[in-house]
Amino acid sequence: MEKPREWLREKSIAKKILSEANVIFEVVDARIPLKTRNKVVEQLAKERNKKVFIIINKTDLVPESFVQKAKNIIEKEHPVVLFSAHRKTGKKEIEKIIKELSKEKKVIKIGVLGYPNVGKSSLINTLKRKKVATTSPKPGMTRGEKLIKLDKNVYLIDTPGIITLEFQDELAIKGSWIPDKLEDPVDVAVKLLEKIIQNRPEAIEEAYGVKPVDDPFKTLEKIGEKLNYRISGGTIDIERTAKKILWDWIKGNIKAYWL
Ligand SMILES: Nc1nc2c(ncn2[C@@H]2O[C@H](COP(=O)(O)OP(=O)(O)OP(=O)(O)O)[C@@H](O)[C@H]2O)c(=O)[nH]1
């Protein structure tokens, strides 16, 4: 099958970074830590013998026991750091890793990779102690790669999110696709609600004050009703409700998580 040009461009960015970097920090989202691991990036790193550290970011959004479970699974393959750019936890551990790495080589270049919106720029800004990378809840805000000097002989390579060949729907559920650009936001919001209902239904009640029902579409309607999103004639504006739910998910306003 012919690959879309976008995919080839991304894969070539990933390849370039993997050849330039001595080591990779792959950032994942603590709410969906296994789903936001990028298999293409990890495979490319393996082929090039580059060590991968998995930085589980946004740990402030999930319980400690959940993230510990994810850590135990991922640690079978790669070293893991539990991190929160918002709370600045895990920073010392990462600095220790960087210190160790710089003992092995004269110049260290760390490629920071991961899906859009997982917090790559936030990680870089935390390590740099000031804002050098643009952060935004809008996925895909980092454009082009950037070399950031962290210390004498230590550099970070900031990158745009690597998503490779995936469907928009799956990306949106990973928080990596702008809801307004989806062809069918209602369908995606229903899939997301289904996941939330399966894994942590109380997150819906916490976010919207609405008790979820087994049927995710009915739950979406109930949320729209509660938000009072209506179109002329008074019927629920399903599409607006769907986009609101997807944005809330991206922004971390819905406290659900799964492996
Ligand atoms: N709750 C929480 N939110 C975070 C954390 N780190 C980042 N975020 C939020 O996640 C969103 C994305 O963060 P960025 O640092 O811009 O993510 P990125 O991976 O560089 O994004 P792209 O530029 O789209 O590739 C922003 O709204 C951040 O405020 C964290 O530790 N906890």
UniProtKB/TrEMBL annotation:
<dbReference type="InterPro" id="IPR006073">
    <property type="entry name" value="GTP-bd"/>
</dbReference>
<feature type="domain" description="CP-type G">
    <location>
        <begin position="8"/>
        <end position="165"/>
    </location>
</feature>
<dbReference type="InterPro" id="IPR023179">
    <property type="entry name" value="GTP-bd_ortho_bundle_sf"/>
</dbReference>
<dbReference type="InterPro" id="IPR016478">
    <property type="entry name" value="GTPase_MTG1"/>
</dbReference>
<dbReference type="GO" id="GO:0005525">
    <property type="term" value="F:GTP binding"/>
</dbReference>
<feature type="binding site">
    <location>
        <begin position="57"/>
        <end position="60"/>
    </location>
    <ligand>
        <name>GTP</name>
    </ligand>
</feature>
<feature type="binding site">
    <location>
        <begin position="117"/>
        <end position="122"/>
    </location>
    <ligand>
        <name>GTP</name>
    </ligand>
</feature>
<feature type="binding site">
    <location>
        <position position="161"/>
    </location>
    <ligand>
        <name>GTP</name>
    </ligand>
</feature>
<dbReference type="GO" id="GO:0005737">
    <property type="term" value="C:cytoplasm"/>
</dbReference>
<protein>
    <recommendedName>
        <fullName>Ribosome biogenesis GTPase A</fullName>
    </recommendedName>
</protein>
<dbReference type="InterPro" id="IPR050755">
    <property type="entry name" value="TRAFAC_YlqF/YawG_RiboMat"/>
</dbReference>
<keyword id="KW-0342">GTP-binding</keyword>
<keyword id="KW-0963">Cytoplasm</keyword>
<dbReference type="InterPro" id="IPR030378">
    <property type="entry name" value="G_CP_dom"/>
</dbReference>
<dbReference type="Pfam" id="PF01926">
    <property type="entry name" value="MMR_HSR1"/>
</dbReference>
<comment type="function">
    <text>Required for a late step of 50S ribosomal subunit assembly. Has GTPase activity.</text>
</comment>
<dbReference type="InterPro" id="IPR027417">
    <property type="entry name" value="P-loop_NTPase"/>
</dbReference>
<comment type="similarity">
    <text>Belongs to the TRAFAC class YlqF/YawG GTPase family. MTG1 subfamily.</text>
</comment>
<keyword id="KW-0547">Nucleotide-binding</keyword>
